Each structure stands twice: as structure tokens, then as C-alpha cells.
Amino acid sequence: MQNHKNYQSFIELLKNTSKLLDLNRKSPLHQDILAVCNYLNNPNFRIAVFGPFNHGKSTLLNAMLGSKTLPIDLIPSTGAAITVRYGSDIRTRIILANGSEIHRSGTDILKEFAILDQNRRMRDDVASVEVFYPHSFLETGIEFLDLPGTNDREAQDNLVREQLLSADLVVQLLDARKLMTLGERENLRDWLLDRGIKTVIFVANFINLLEPEEQKEVQNRLRFVAESFRAELPSGFSNLYRVDALPALRARLKGDVAAANISGLVEFETALQNIAVILKQNNQAVSKPRVQAVALKLQIALKDKINPIQDEVQKINNKNNAANEIKRKAADLIQQGFSASIAKLRQWLSLANLREKYQGDAAIALAQDNFSNWERETLKNDLQPLQQAVIKWLYQAYDFFQNERPEDLLIPVPKHPQVTLPPRNTNSGDLSEPGSLAVGSGIGWVLGGPLGAAVLGSISYLVNKNIQKQDEKSANESYHQQVATLCLDAVDEYLSEFSRQGLSILAECDRKSAKVIKFIENPDSLDIIQKRQQLQKWQNSLIELNQQLESYFSISIPNEFKVEIETPKNHQSVYRSQGVGIREDVGTKRVVEVKNNGTATQAQEQQTQAKTSTKETHSAPYSHVYKTDCKRPKFDELDANFRKWEIDQEIAKMKAEMGVSGYQKRQQQNTNTSNQTSTQQPKKQLEIEKITRAYKLLGLPSDASIDAIKQAYRKLVKQWHPDLFVSNPQQLKQAQEKMHLINDAYNWLTDGH
Questions:
Q1: What is the pLDDT of residue 460?
Q2: Residue 144: beta bridge partners?
């Protein structure tokens, strides 16, 4: 027999699981757990005898012991579970509920503590009753368990039910006069079979009291009962025996061996001893089914705890993951838009671009004493939308992520350039030489008149011919060419300073954007942390139970009870998308690369070029550029805004793709033709007709929302995009014409949104 000490950790686990489940101490499952623990902790082989009152249980045991050791009477008597163990002399030990013990020689004390009171009730102050008896069978490590009779009181039934689970072998005593009553069949099913107790022997008593013909009929019925119950006994042994208990006891008390044989006692004892020896050597065959039955109930109880909280945690996780996925997509889109807009502004600020685009006009404005107007109406006017396109993405990031509030991008202009006129040589005032092309008269510059016009002409000439080079001046350069060169040099210095300072500020803006265009996954609330901890506690308990069932008893675990534990979330994830985005798990300092192409699509570039007025900002859900107070949007609002944004992005991409396919030119030609026709009608009436046709073309009612218009447009573009018909010229032409009408309809209906 496997040493019971090997089961200590499993016994402790069962008790801890019962505590974790907070089982009622009187609940059947709690009592089964205690019984199994006592069974696994008992080094002896226990044989329990049970059956209804007055079936002769104590009489049968006394016959086997060869003395009137246990109390017997004509009325229900045994009121406690009496364990009979080996001892060198006959003695009794009573353990009371308060922990105190009573020791007496002999068994007379059983009449005080182990029988029912005058009201036929068990004593509730008795914890256990043990009798020690010098018998050779008991000396081999066998012990008997005499149980109270069933079918009398609920308390006795509960006690019997509990004790059966702690027995290695169960002897169910049957009354041959009323064989297998309904109550006995129910007990066989509920108390034995359903609890994994399958090492059961049936013993029929009182057959001697029947007539010979009745005995034959009862024997046939007994065989049917035995065959219908598949007991797990060693091969070669029957699970049905006949013992006339009272004649057997009398024969033993008289020492009449022949009478004992006739009573069936000797055959039963011999089989019982051999079965016990075999089962002791293969204890797993006995313990595994009943342990598995109790463990199954524990697994179900733990699963009942795990499933609802797991579903709840999963719903919260799904919602958080959905919100984070939206933010992650937003971070990508915003970063790409920001990168495209900042690249556009950086290119515009490059000195080569500023020289090519502005140097000539700025020098002329300087020569005309009109530099302030040029600076305000040209340079600043071109700069402002580029600055706003950059800062717009930062504020959109702030709306989504509520990180550090972005600073406004303000690129200042340098001080106005100053020109000191050289001394004027009146002999070199010839204005007819090359480069002295007047661009007008009446120019209000300090030189005035033809000389001023000549200076402006020289500026244009020098810029167009690209002959202005630092420190390379012709010795015979005319005065107006010298002045023109000075103006160009002054403007070049102005633009150089503007480029240098602007690029520096832009680089700082790009660096600080990392604190704005990122999202940090919100830390878990205390409620979800507690739920996860509680869930993990239940899961760990079930995992440990499964592991020990496999380890100790080789019990395979059904898939329904296998557990996949979610890794506890104990950190915040920081997501930053910029070419190669960085996702940093703060708790573990693990860095994961999130790759993307790092470039803006044509649609996104088109979006960054859009004007920032209310009329032109329907390409993104946030039309403002500057915002003074932002509240963190709720998940539903965030999701709705982002879905709308995605539609706008897709529409922009579709329109960009049509431009790439060469369709844009034809669309413009058709639009021009339409514009020429429209001049023949009153403008207001024409607009009404166009809007009506637009709704009809998109298949929408006249009160359709802007979102419905966008959805319809997206659907039609996917259906009629010319690229879908490149292999069929006739259909391609039809698609091009259809797309022209769809685009016109969309533009009319979204104007002002």
C-alpha cells in the first residue's frame, strides 16, 4: 500500500480549496472532502458495514470477532460510527466534541456513548468511538467500521454517508426477506456509485428464516442484483455472499465450526481476507475513483467561480483593447499627417527654396520701400497655413491622448533688411546698358524716376540670369546694378536668417511632438485589478488541483477544466508612432518596434494642404486648430470620431488615386464645360437643381446627414472607380463619366462641411 504520508500535500490542497470556496461546513461537498482526507490519511485498510436498522450489521461483526463486542439489540441501537482496530486487549476510547478523551477497559462504555438515547437520537457531543480488539485479522492492518442504521433519522443517514467515503471496502447488508428496497437502491446509487465507491460486497442476511422455495427465489434475485452492479473487485471473487448473522454469532460463541460453515460466515471471511490483501497492495484502484468523484465536484465549483468573473474581465479587456487600438490607429494617422506637414514646412523653409521663390520679389519690394507689405501679404501669408497644418496635428493628438499640451508653432521673421547706398557717380548714369530694363515708372523709391526703374530692372535681370554671386562684382558695374546687388544681398541675408531660425524652431517642435503624439494605456482601475487577482486566485487553485490529480492519481483532466491564465497587467504601454514607432513597456523596460513606412500617403499629403477654415476641414473630425480646454473623450465618442475620420481618410485617398490614374485632367475639363453651361442660368436656381441631382445620384434623401453622404460616396467610388475597368475601354469610358458625376455630387453636398 502506498504510504499515506505521500498524500499530505494533496490533503492540504483539498482543505485549502474548501476554505477558498467558503463551503458550508455542513454541506455535502465539504463533508466529502473531509471524508476523503481522512481516508487518504488512514494507513489501515478499512472495511465498513452498512445497511438499514435491524439488518444485523453489529451482529455480523460480532460473529467475525467471535464475541459480543459491539452493542446489539432488537431495536435500533448503534448511535455512532464505531471503529474496531487491533489492540493487545479489549478497550474503548471515546473522543468528545470538545477534544477530551475517555478511556475504558472492555466495551461496556459503548452503552453510554455509542447507542441512541431514549428519543432514538445520536449524541451530539461524541466525535468518534474506537474499540481495540486482539484479533489476527485486525493485526494485519485491517479495521472494521460499524455504522448506524439508515432510513431512521436524517442525522444518522448523513453520518453514514460521510463515513462510507473513508472506507476501502464496503459491505452492504441486505435483508433477504425484503430484498433491495427503494431506499436501498437509492443509497446504492447516491451514496456509493455516484461518489466513486465501487469496491462493494453484498451480504444477504436472514435467508435461514425463509422457506426452501423462497430461498431459491431470493437466491435468483440476489444474483440479478449482484450482476447489475459492476463492482471493482479483484478477479475471481464474487460480490455476493450469504451469511446468517445470528446463527453465525452463536456458532462462534460456542466454537461450533460446522455451524459457522453452514451459516456462510467462513466462506465470507475467507473471501474478505483475500480481497483485503489484494486491494491493500493496489490502493490506487480503490482511492482513484472516489478521489476523482470528489475532485470533479471541486473542479465544477471552481469553474463556476471562474467563468463569470473571467467573462467580466474579458469584456473589460476587449473594451480597453478596442479603445487602445483606436488610439494606436489615431497615433499612426496623426504621426503620418504631422510628419508630412512638417516635411512640407521644412522644405519650404530651406534656403534654396526661399531664394528661388521670394528673393527677387523681396528685393523689388525692398527697392520700392514696400518690404513690410510684401512680408505680411506674401511671406507670412504663405507661412501661416503651413504652420497651422503642423500644429493642427498636435492639437488633434492632444484631443485624443490628453498628454502634454502642445505649444503653438510660431516662426518669427528677422528684422527688415537695411541697404546703404554707395556713392553715386553721375558720370556712370547710363541707363541703356543690358540689365537696365525698366519695369515701370513713378516708382516711389528714394532714387526715384528712371534710376529707380533701372534698379528694379537690374534686380529682375540678375535674379533671372542667376549671375549674382558673393564677392564677384564687375569692375565696370553700373550704379543701378550695384544698388540692385545690394538689395539682393540684403534680402538673401534676411532669408538665410529666416531659414536658419525657422528650421531650428521646427526641429524643436518635432522633438517636443514626441510628448504629444503618443498614447499611454490607461492604468487599470482598482476594480479590474481586484477582479484579475480574484480570477487568478481561482485559476491557480484549479491548476494546482489538476496538477496534483495527474501527479498522485494519474487522472487525466478534461479540456473544460484546463485553465489558460491571462498574464497580469502590471505596467503601462507607451505607444509612439514615428517612422519606426516605439512601444515601451514601462514595467519591464521591454521595447518593441512597431514598423511602418514612415511616409505620408498622397491622400494624407492632400489633407495637410487643406485650408484650416471651417469650410475646408471636413477631412478630419476636429476642425479647429487651437483649443484651450479639452476633456478626455469617452470611448463611444472616441470610436465615433475615429470611424468618421477613417471614412474621410478613405475618401481623400480615393480622390487622390483618381488623380494618379490620369482621370483628374478629364474631370477638370468636364467641370470647366459644366461651368460654361451654368453661366446661362440664374446661379441660385442652378445650385438648387445641382443639389437635387446630387442627392438623387448618390441615392439619398434630401435630408441625408453628412455621414450618410460620405458613406454613399465611398460605396459608389468602390463600385465605379475607373481603375476597375482598365481592361474594357467601353466600360472604362462609362466609369469615367459616372465618376465625374459622383465627384460633382459629393463636392456640391459637402461644400461648407
A1: 65
A2: 47, 84
